Amino acid sequence: MNNQNKIEGFEISTNNKSNRILDIYLKDEFIEKLIFPFKRFDITALEYKPFTRFTLAKNLDDLTQNKLSKLINSILKDRTTGCFILKTNNQNKKIDDEFLVKLSTAITHLIGIPNHDSMTGKYYARFIVKHEDNSDSYLRKPYINMDLHTDGTYVNENTDWILMTKIEEKNAKGGEAALLHLDDLENLKELSENPAGRQNFIWRSPKSKNVDYKVEHPVFTKEENGGTNISYIDQFPEPQNIEQGTFLQSLSDALEESDNKITTELPIGSSIVANNHFWLHGRKPFKKNKNLFRELLRIRGKF
């Protein structure tokens, strides 16, 4: 590891499932340093006064001599990586749900500006997955595979990155996170050069998302440096013809059948942070349990 990536109070290593992912572990000694600045603002202040979120971010970065912000931005903007998993000691009793909201807030405000999350009307969303569900999207369906996708496909804001934090989990087996770097998709060239993938698709969202408009954009776009980006989720496009429909089916099959898809368990108190343009994410089904409970936090936004 490069010496400039060494930060006191952190352990930084390559993830055992992928060389593209870095694990960033916050030691208990560093958590102790966060307790005082994190107590300065309650959650309501963070929700109502956006500048407090940046104050929290600066407090965090100052404790690392401004090394953390440089590290995480370099990871996310590097096409060869683009993803890190932030980990904490989930046996540390000082790490509760409020602490995790604040930590997630600080991390994301070192990266950029969160989108407004219409589902909750805040800059973040907290949602629960449990045994019984009558929602209108895969987000809360515990026993159905959540296929690989990117976020922000149905909104007119840029969604450059996404953070997902596991706040709590009980009686859960299965439900592992699924991840795939777009460059590892075996037939990316064939799919991305298909004319249908460059056409504008119509994208809409279910009522629970609280977005009352539709957007149009292609599945695949090119970066200035020539890399391919993707904006795709299986539930939200409205194909207008057989060509579009069969293209989406081929893409869905390729993503789910990829041998390079990574599945990993995310411990309580940990966060996945990924570049939303070339990392896709999903979730494996849970095993049925009437006492299943998982609470997640989501923040997504732009650089």
Question: What keyword list fits this structure?
Answer:
alpha+beta; Double-stranded beta-helix; 16 strands; four-stranded antiparallel beta sheet; 26% helix; 303 residues
Please characterize this protein's 3D structure.
There is one protein chain. The protein is of the alpha+beta class and 303 residues long. It has a domain at 3-140 and 158-165 and 266-278 and 285-302: Clavaminate synthase-like (Double-stranded beta-helix), CATH 3.60.130.10. Helix content is 26%, strand content 26%. The strands form four sheets. Strands 1, 2, 3, 4, 5, 7, 14 and 16 form an eight-stranded mixed beta sheet that branches. The protein has a four-stranded antiparallel beta sheet with strand order 6-15-8-13, with helices on one face. It has a two-stranded antiparallel sheet with strand order 9-10. Helix 3 (50-62) packs across helix 5 (97-111). The radius of gyration is 19 Å and the shape is globular. The model has no long low-confidence stretch (mean pLDDT 93).
